[in-house]
Amino acid sequence: MRARSFLDRQSPPHIFTLVMMVALSALSMNIFLPSLPSISEHFDEDKNIVQLTITLYLFATAFLQPILGPLSDYYGRRPIVLFGLIGFIVGTVICIFAPNIEILLIGRMVQATSAAGMVISRAIIRDMVGLEKAASMIGYVTMGMAIAPMIGPAMGGYLDEFFGWQAAFWLLLVFAVIVLCITWADLGETRKTAAPNLTSQFASYPILLRSRRFWGYSLTAAASAGTFYSILGGGPFVATEYLKLSPSQFGKYFAIISIGYMFGNYLSGRYAERFGISPLLIYGNVVVAVGVFISFILLMNGSKNALFFFLPLCLVGVGNGLSLPSANAGIVSLHPSLAGAASGLGGFLQIILGATFSMLAGMVLGPLSNPAPMLILMMAIAILGICIAFYVVYIDAQELRKNLNHQTIIGSENE
Fold first, then answer.
1. Which residues contact 297 (CB under 8 A, 6 or more apart)?
2. DSSP 12-43
3. Is 318 in contact with 382 (CB distance < 8 Å)?
4. Distance (Å, rounded) from C-alpha 56 to C-alpha 351?
5. What is the distance between the alpha carbons of residues 43 and 39, in angstroms, rounded to a whole number?
6. What does the H/E/C string look like for 200-225?
7. Which has the closest alpha carbon to 202: 66, 81, 64, 352?
8. Cβ atoms within 10 Å of 228's Cβ, excluding its own
9. Are 81 and 186 spatial neighbours (Cβ–Cβ below 8 Å)?
10. The dihedral of CA 130, 278, 285, 66: what is its sign?
11. Which of 64, 185, 320, 369 could pair covalently with 241 via S-S, beta carbons 3.0-4.6 A apart?
């Protein structure tokens, strides 16, 4: 395969193309967050029903990933990514013209096909580079991708105030068409060898599910990301009902978390090769817990200042940026021949738990949307993530000792 060259379908994709593929999925998750109260008012629906636009999108994304991963191992990365982008465009059109909340929810679930770009981008990276380099490259890709959630909610807030909630979906439609054109022109096939048959790829899931390291990486990532998904689920209503922010104000404050995520990914890209992925799993989850704890302490002191609520949560973004690239690199590196399947199954576990945390965050909020219950839930998730991260380090140490003992035995036999 040729060296990487931009807009050349015969070479591996440029990092810009990978960023755009992943950014579309991230942007579709949060650009309309400031509009949730407006959607609730427009359709005259309860906030818990409207919150399903996030929860169902996450669940659909989760269930698609274990399917899209093996499909990409068998049919190739390129056709599955293109299929996902076309599906996203169809879903966005449905959302724009939805006459009721039910059709809007259907459109959101169809939009979940954008998960193809997210899950397969990790397999593409693993096709091109080794483990530590993969963690670094995933970090840089998600750092670039973090620009979308950084500006998305602020942009969505202004669009909502001036043009209505549908405007955010119009912007998504335009962006999706641009991403489809770039991907069509630049994404060369990176899968080295085709899977013998599609059944064998799905049959590989028991191999992955029996791996303690797979569970460790997946659950660490799920716990770390779970705190962020909790903000997605409860944050818009805390902002509008408790902190009395306008949609555009919420979007600007939410960007603080995305800036943290971008910085964390930069650190991951810079230091993953130097320190290894296991330490970054621990550091990331600890940083998440510290951020949630500071926000909770300020809240308990009676603060209703939006900056005091969102600024500590910037550390949630930093922690996610540190831990997620390493966890995802670990997942797709356990069995390189099953990179697509592993990425899909790992993504399923992460997002299904993330969607559950998002739903719980919305449910625990009281009538005045006091954020204390949500922050307590986030703290519990963060502590769980720290414990699982230490478990991953323990497993890695066991594997290392086993390999050293095995080499010692072989060396003795050769003597």
1. none
2. PPPHHHHHHHHHHHHHHHHTTGGGHHHHHHHH
3. no
4. 11
5. 6
6. HHHHCHHHHHCCHHHHHHHHHHHHHH
7. 66
8. 27
9. no
10. positive
11. 369
- Which residues, 6 or more positions from 81, have their beta carbon under 8 angstroms from its beta carbon? 21, 72, 116, 117, 120, 183, 187
- In this structure, how many other beta carbons lie within 10 angstroms of the beta carbon of residue 246? 16
Task: Report the C-alpha gap between 145 and 157 in whole angstroms.
Answer: 20
List domains and CATH numbers for the chain.
Answer: 15-188+201-414 (1.20.1250.20)
